[in-house]
Design a protein that fits this description.
By secondary structure, the chain is mainly alpha-helical. It has four helices and two strands; from the N terminus they run βαααβα. It has a two-stranded antiparallel ribbon. The longest helix is centred in the middle third of the chain and has 14 residues. The protein starts with 9 loop residues before the first strand and ends with a helix. The relative contact order is 0.22.
Length: about 70
């Protein structure tokens, strides 16, 4: 049985690892998530409007909802 994804603040590394399901190192997972954010049209701008900054370590609930809305749940 698969765990249900919970909407809450996440550490960026924790969120990246959830998306890659532990198949990559933490560093590679962060690179993957950053690439997904950069490649999805308009997502980075939407996140920035929600207060996101490069190097941010905590993803807020509003930012998480934007990410999940764009690339889906982990």
């Amino acid at each position: 049985m698969e765990k249900q994804f919970i909407i809450r603040p996440y550490g960026k590394r924790e969120l990246a690892m959830a998306y890659t399901r532990g198949t990559m190192s933490a560093h590679a997972s962060l690179n993957w998530l950053n690439n997904e954010i950069a490649l999805y049209p308009g997502l980075l701008e939407q996140l920035q409007a929600l207060g996101y900054r490069s190097g941010q370590r905590i993803i807020t609930i509003a930012q998480l909802r934007a990410i999940v809305g764009a690339i889906g749940e982990p």
